Amino acid sequence: MKSVGIIGANGYTGSELVRLLAFHPEVELQFLYSRSNAGMKISEIYPDLISLCEMTLTNQIQEVDILFLCLPHQESRNWLTENPVKEDVLVIDLGNDFRLENNFQDRNFIYGLTELFKNELKSAKSIANPGCFATAIQLALLPLTKEKLLKDIYTTGITGSTGAGQSLQSTTHFSWRNDNISAYKTLTHQHVDEVLKSLNLSNEKEIELHFVPWRGDFVRGIFTSSIIKCDLDLNEIQKKYCDFYKDAPFVTISEKPIDMKQVINTNRCAIHIEKNNETIVVHSAIDNLLKGASGQAVQNMNIVMDWAENTGLQLKPIAF
Amino acid sequence: MKSVGIIGANGYTGSELVRLLAFHPEVELQFLYSRSNAGMKISEIYPDLISLCEMTLTNQIQEVDILFLCLPHQESRNWLTENPVKEDVLVIDLGNDFRLENNFQDRNFIYGLTELFKNELKSAKSIANPGCFATAIQLALLPLTKEKLLKDIYTTGITGSTGAGQSLQSTTHFSWRNDNISAYKTLTHQHVDEVLKSLNLSNEKEIELHFVPWRGDFVRGIFTSSIIKCDLDLNEIQKKYCDFYKDAPFVTISEKPIDMKQVINTNRCAIHIEKNNETIVVHSAIDNLLKGASGQAVQNMNIVMDWAENTGLQLKPIAF
Amino acid sequence: MKSVGIIGANGYTGSELVRLLAFHPEVELQFLYSRSNAGMKISEIYPDLISLCEMTLTNQIQEVDILFLCLPHQESRNWLTENPVKEDVLVIDLGNDFRLENNFQDRNFIYGLTELFKNELKSAKSIANPGCFATAIQLALLPLTKEKLLKDIYTTGITGSTGAGQSLQSTTHFSWRNDNISAYKTLTHQHVDEVLKSLNLSNEKEIELHFVPWRGDFVRGIFTSSIIKCDLDLNEIQKKYCDFYKDAPFVTISEKPIDMKQVINTNRCAIHIEKNNETIVVHSAIDNLLKGASGQAVQNMNIVMDWAENTGLQLKPIAF
Amino acid sequence: MKSVGIIGANGYTGSELVRLLAFHPEVELQFLYSRSNAGMKISEIYPDLISLCEMTLTNQIQEVDILFLCLPHQESRNWLTENPVKEDVLVIDLGNDFRLENNFQDRNFIYGLTELFKNELKSAKSIANPGCFATAIQLALLPLTKEKLLKDIYTTGITGSTGAGQSLQSTTHFSWRNDNISAYKTLTHQHVDEVLKSLNLSNEKEIELHFVPWRGDFVRGIFTSSIIKCDLDLNEIQKKYCDFYKDAPFVTISEKPIDMKQVINTNRCAIHIEKNNETIVVHSAIDNLLKGASGQAVQNMNIVMDWAENTGLQLKPIAF
């Protein structure tokens, strides 16, 4: 059994980790850290955790084997500065601090898109867990980078309200968001650079990603559609996708249309490709809190620890 | 007072016309035609109509000044063949029969995108009312055609369940659609030709529209985002939009981000333009049953009859 | 034309009044008062008001014929103390300050449940507009008080998120409220006294109302079901209801089951009565912001001003 | 490993069993029976099952240790007549055929409300799994029957659309149900008899249950509030509830208000009790497809097989 600490356990991704790790057979939750809610039971904040996890949030750090950082973006760096972590502790950061600049202190953060860097992750001591939209878009496009044909990508993605975190905002007010759709950070979403960094690894031309994110009127989930000019035959493309993901237990290449809800409450990504004339569209769907955050973090931990990749991730889909 | 008949009054767009015309000061509903529900009161099918309209559906046609056809697509042609209509009757077809081929019998159907063909509509006797997605996309892009710069357009649009009509389908089952997103008719939606016909009118190059429609988990509304390469300065673009729509009471060019719900239960279209580097994105939002169908049909009737354009269309927004 | 001022125009009920009065043929909006948002256009807060109402919120009061108070509960009293209003101004308070204690300054506030006090309202100068749940429950039960048979009433009601106002709260966070149901103020809701005051007017026995309010996962609307022991025959009961409401244009007694959405975006109340053995259940549905607040306020204004009761209230139902 | 067959695997409760048993460590799915969809993979009907269960539906029956019947109500009897089952096979019926009349063929069906009949279930060979509303209401009230004080119970309950099954109906059409509330089977719901049978077991007076079920605008879940006259002190009541459920791992007596979503995608029931004057209200919440159907069926199987009660039921809550 490995011991685990979660920094920022009172947030959405932190509490989702608790939901996963409470049933993970190889780890034990050692402490749940929260500055603002120290002293409260986490099940008081998230009553779904009653009887699952009756731990009390603390502002005291203990020694553990594995540390998950679930802090607001750009706070992990400070936290690690103020709270030095022994070098043999596996640190998995769910924030965006180390996704683009991956060296900090003596640590070299491996980008935790499991399907792209599985080999590198096996020996990782520090992992920068990808963003939710970044995960959905990269999984949809990675097999095409091998073809070096990607140039202009036009992507629209829609995300649930949990993507915006638990703070109260006008755009997460129920009276506003219910039955509503809106765009935000048009062409300037922070995940674009994260996606391009991966896509450009094996692509010879400079890729442009034109990404329009939308706020959806649902709580969990991401759905994206990427439009790309491409000469390849559809069967050929599908074959390349199946090859690329042949060892990826959580990625499904579907010959039939997909819908977002088929992956909700799972760590899976569903992908569907369509073609018309010289244009292809790749659709992808994930649960933003699982494959898009805490689920992928557990998947990465499993890889590092040499446990079966799906340990603790055999989740009953919500389905309906 | 002009007399009105509605063919297919028992469907979504037909009943929405009833909701509008019940309060229209210049017209009187003469008969509501339905083959399948003849003999029933329309308020039995739509109980929101109780006390608003207590008419009984009939399969008998009467003489009227204005006839709205609200039949399933490709049934208007047959209906007109079987039920000859006097030539001085204003016929407004909400189906897609006459949008691309506009001559039938002795009638020449004017395409009823009010903001584009207001002059032609003034003397029309036959109107092909545009499709819902086609309206939202055209209104978003028309001012750019004047610039003759449109070439490749990448559009994603999302529509409410009323866009799929009242028949029971697996994709309109509540257990499936709630909290769900999915794509359909990717790159092959029937409204693409309708849009291109208008856009190419004043555009010298051949335009390609790559359109990905999504099913949304809401009932009313359409939201679209179109990505286009464009050199023009944003202020310049906004000015062109304001100029283009200066006489259009139902189109708003918003300098601030828009959300879909701000136009629900109104006949309005809200448009917002953003630019980053050489790429612009135009967002548009309409109520698919109003500006996207029955509302625009009433607007067109008003134009033909020389009534104020907003007669019967001063609708309280749902807002929340 | 009468001039109107709205105090607290930036809230839900205040802005809903703007939506109604913008199209009301007999009144003119003179000023929209807001302390916190003075200087902003109301359409910046509620973009659905763009082109409907381009007024700027002010903290200056002007003389008007009619004044609507849309302040948080228990703030109307203070406001009237600090801002004396001439005695011939019609004051309609949408808060709960004067519902139970109806004398203040020289004003005698008439309880504005239109269907119960229409005669008294005709000569009113001050009106205490009823609460939303109070309206739905009273309209469901008033005809039975005549029978003096009401004793124990067991009511469950569910309300949309707009009932909780526009402030950000954990229970109006989209991530929490979507797909969720919960109870609040069980047996202690502030509207119970308001209901009992009316019901006891013509009932000889002491009535007990056991009311359990629920938070619903929708934005607009109230649905209530009241269970009562009652010996009367169902037909007889229905007849009494129809008699009681024979002059009430906004109340429908439905022989068929009702659903909440049939009254959304209207000022109507739908009522349906069922009986099994010695027990009856009365269901009622209203739009909480219209018949439950701003719509009824306009209805009351119409009564006082001797305008047709439905002036400005011929609203297109949302239907879907 | 025990072998399992599911009759009617293509329905909601059948497929939910597949989701649970796919990860259950003590059983192996042997065959999934469906008359109408034989030959199709179940993951074609429910794409969330891709990679979880790639079995093909069959109309051939095989020998198994455990048989779940997930047929429409009143079809289990016929099925068992036409398809004799060996007497040592554990049969768990999720329909309502044997809940009230529990003898059929040589089988004596034990009513499968686990918390009430755990001892009897240990040696059961045939189980009549309770209805969803019946489970939620009984769990809320059972501890009070010991007090023999229950007399008149006034219950309102709300259920998700999955309670109505997968067939397409006007009341499960998304355009109708979204944002809508309605009552059905007022005072006559079929679960009333099921509840009363249990409540009357240890209650000396005749109990009347006045139950009003509502259709909710969500997919999963049940929330109920029962109003009861009761003299006992609240602390005393809570203590009785805690005692009654002290060995029930899936029932939580919460001192804080509960919300429905806290139990969604779990097998748990959350209960909260409030008191005002001489009236108490008991609220309960379950996932209708889990504790209200397939989850409880697995729990009962575990009891019979002497496996840990929560085997295969340690489910990650959906939480958001």
TrEMBL record, chains A, B, C, D:
> Could you say which protein family the record assigns here?
Belongs to the NAGSA dehydrogenase family. Type 1 subfamily.
Q: What is its EC number?
A: 1.2.1.38
Instruction: Enumerate the SUPFAM superfamilies for this protein.
Output: Glyceraldehyde-3-phosphate dehydrogenase-like, C-terminal domain, NAD(P)-binding Rossmann-fold domains
Q: Which PROSITE patterns match?
A: ARGC
> What protein am I looking at?
N-acetyl-gamma-glutamyl-phosphate reductase
* Leading EC class: oxidoreductase
Reaction equation(s) it catalyzes = N-acetyl-L-glutamate 5-semialdehyde + phosphate + NADP(+) = N-acetyl-L-glutamyl 5-phosphate + NADPH + H(+)
Q: Which residues form the active site?
A: 132
| Major place of residence | cytoplasm
Which UniProt keywords are listed?
Amino-acid biosynthesis, Arginine biosynthesis, Cytoplasm, NADP, Oxidoreductase
| Keyword Lyase carried by entry | no
